[in-house]
Structure formats: structure tokens, C-alpha cells
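Re: [help] complex structure
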Amino acid sequence: MIEVKNVDKSFDGNHVLKDVSATFETGITNMIIGQSGSGKTVLMKSIIGLHRIDHGEIKYDGRNLPDMHMSEIRILRKEVGMLFQGSALFDSLSVLENVMYPLEMFSSSTKEEMTERARFCLSHVNLEEKAFHLAPSEISGGMQKRVAIARAIALQPKYLFCDEPNSGLDPKTSLIIDRLIYEITHEFNITTIINSHDMNSVMEIGENIIFINNGQKAWQGNKNEIFHVNNQKLNDFVFASNLYKKVRESNQQS
Amino acid sequence: MSLISTTGKYFLLMERVFVLPDRWKMFFRQFPKELEKLGLQSLPIVAIISIFIGFIMTMQTKLNTSNPLLPVYTTGLVTRDTLLLEFSSTILCLILAGKVGSNIASEIGTMRITEQIDALEIMGVNSANYLILPKIVAFVVMMPFLVIFSMGLGLVGGYFVGILTSILTTGNYLIGIQYAFVPYYIFYSLLKSMIFAFLISSIAAYYGYYAYGGALDVGKASTNAVVNGSILILFFNILITKLMLN
Ligand SMILES: Nc1ncnc2c1ncn2[C@@H]1O[C@H](COP(=O)(O)OP(=O)(O)OP(=O)(O)O)[C@@H](O)[C@H]1O
Ligand SMILES: [Mg+2]
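Output below.
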């Protein structure tokens, strides 16, 4: 479980996160939703410690990140995997080497064991063998996401962060990636946090949803509750598309 | 941002860069690549520029000092000392600030905006040390060789004036470039150029590392790297010359 309490973060006077508090449960997919620019990425990077917060607490199963020394943070990082918004694969390395990279950094296994593990992770995300030795620039965006997921789970993380896992993907591939993250979370009992502004993913895998509006938490609940909330900002977000408007209308009729 | 806070941020970054690598294996995997990219790949441009400047400098010196009272060694001497003192160190570094500086800033800047640096940090890597140290060390190590190479080819360029034109004889030129040779100048030049190499690579790394935004911002970062790197070279040139030649 990750608990966030009263977190503030600003950049050169631009106050991005304002007193955000939330809890993220273990073994389920926690989602942070909100408009573009609302501060989702900043919140996620603050939780991981890539941004130093101005004020507040971030507790990983009781361990408070802002109190930690660099050496303790490094130990924590071994338990963390992250999927970045743009995949962030290292372009000088092949697909397989990308997945092996965290293993080389952290584990003391032999080269064979690491290759074994990397291959296992890549096949777990349904990547074909023939793509293993290509450079990231030679594979499609959807495949890059899969490689990034494989890299994120290579060290069997206890905490998995996904920043807009399906941005730039077609609806079908998005669905596959969402389900993949959902399955991995449940299979390995991971505390997963997903940033998204895609209502389809929210409806697909949103087990615990935190809605961020303009740097503040405006609502928390699950995908069954989200249609029945009396919150103007959240409604604007949820029913932005005609499809969901229609869903609401048909709900109200029945 | 104000000069003071930029300087402070630069030194804080350097503090993270200059620690012993956690994984020497990673450092030694990166280091030869940087030697190649920043050093060897600069050889062609250094060669072309040095030969041509050596040539034109010799020609200009000869044409503009046509007074028959001047000794025969004048042209060679002036060419040699200009090469040794300024061209093959300062001017060469200004040129390399453009080539190497923009290369480093855009490479690191791109890694920053595509979140590859964040990805390294997540994996517990000191990204500043891992990415920047091999570049700085490689460039500082390569620089003296580039300078010597440039001095040599600059002198060869001057020699061609004797061969290709009739304004100067190769004999007089050769006497000139050997006349009143001060070996200390070479030491001064090499030391100076190593300091410039450090400035170029560390400043470019700084601008790349703190790039934020998109492709446009990477462009800005590399422009800043080249402009500010060049200004600092000129400034340090005066400082070092004052200290070493006064
Ligand atoms: N490193 C940074 N330096 C300065 N400002 C930043 C930085 N990172 C984010 N911001 C600012 O924080 C605000 C929120 O950005 P953030 O990336 O968190 O949005 P987001 O909710 O993730 O949007 P999107 O859905 O488009 O990814 C923006 O106004 C942005 O300009
Ligand atoms: Mg974002």
C-alpha cells in the first residue's frame, strides 16, 4: 500500500500539486485520472521520488520516502518498476538489452540467468522472439510499450507505475495493454498505479480511481461509482465524449 | 534564471558527476564509445580547418609583411607561434564547442525529454555520473591529441604556401618555424585546451541534463550550450594567459 498525505509540489512558482492525499491499495489497479496538464505525471514522479516534494508524506508500506537517505531510496527503487509515458527505452540498446538493463544494475545473477529472465518477461508480454534483437526505433509504438512493461516487471517489482500506458495506441492495442497490466497486478500482487485520461481504460480496469483536477484531488472511488457522482468537474471529464453521454442517458432511462 | 542560481545548479550537478562510478563495467563500456565519438570523429574537421588556416595565415603574414628589412624567418615564426599559442587551442576549441557541445547537449537533452534519464534514475543509476562523466573524461583526454594534431597540420598547411605559390620559399618557411622555439608554449596550449575541453563538455551536459519540454527545447539547450561554452572559453583564455604567460 502506498499512502500519500498532504503533498505539495511547485516548479519555480508554478504550484502544480496542491495538498494531495490518497491511498493506493496492493494487488489492484489504482488509477489517477484527470485532464491533460492537471498534474498526473508530476504526482506520479513525486511518489517515486523523481521530483522532490515541497511538503507532505509518501509512505511505501509505512516507509516514508521524503525521510529516506539516498542509499535507502536505492533499496526501495529495486522494488519499483515504471512504464513511462513515451516508453523511455534506451535507444542505444536492443530490445533484449533494454529488459536486461535493470537486472544488470541490481541483481547478481549470471549472464545466462539474466537473459533467461529477460526472455521470460518479453514472452509474458507477448512479444515475438524475432523482435528481441531489434532496436527500439525499429518496432511499433505498441511493441515499445510492451518492451517497456517487460523492463518494468523484470525485477519483480512490488510497486508498478504506469504513466499513460495507452497514449498513442489504437483502441484494440490499448485494451490489450490495459488487460496485461491488470493481469500482472493480480498475478504478482503488485501495488499498481496507472495514470490515464482515457475513459475506456478507466471502465476496463479502474478498481480504485483518484480524480485530479488542477493539481487537487477532487474525487476517489471505483468504476461502478464514477457514473453516479455529483461532481461537476468529474462529470465534465467523464462525459466529455458522446459515447459516455449516451451511456448515462440510457442508464437514467432504465 | 539568474546567473547565481544557474552557477549553483551547475556545481551541484558536477558534484553528482564527479563521484566514482557504481559500476566500473558500465563506465568502461561507455568510455571508448565517447573517445570515438567526441575525439576520433572530430579529426576530419580539425584536419581540414587546420590545414586551410595554416595555409591562409602563412600567406597573409607574408603578403602583409613585405618589408625587405624583416628577417626571412618572420613568416614561419609568426605562423608557428599563432598556431601554438592561440589557433590550435582557443580557436580550435571554439570550433569544437560548436561540434561537440551541441552533440552532447542534444544527446543528453533528448534522453531527458524522452524520460530515459528518469528511467535510469528509477533503476537506481546515478544518471549524471553514468551519462556525463565518460563524456567529460573522454573529451579532456582526447583534447591534447587533437591540439597536437592541429598544430602539426597547421604547419603543414603553411608549408604548402611555399610549394603552391611563389610568394615564399619552403626553405625560409622551414627556418622560420624552427627559429626561437619555446617548448613552454606547447605545454601552455595543451593545458589550456584541456580546461576548455572540460568547460565545453560540462556546460553542454548541464544544458542537456536540465532540458525540459520538447524537441524545440533540446534545440534551445544546444544553442545555449554552444553560446555560453564559447563565451566562457574566451573569458578563461584571458585568465589562463594572464596566469601562465605573464
Ligand atoms: N520538470 C518540470 N518543470 C517545470 N514545470 C513542470 C515540470 N513538470 C511538469 N511541469 C508542469 O506541471 C504541470 C502538470 O504537468 P503534468 O505533466 O503532470 O500533466 P499531466 O496531467 O501528466 O498531463 P498529460 O496528461 O498531458 O501527460 C504542467 O503545467 C507542467 O508545465
Ligand atoms: Mg502526463
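The interface with chain A takes residues 23, 114-116, 118-119, 121-125 of chain B (CB under 8 Å).
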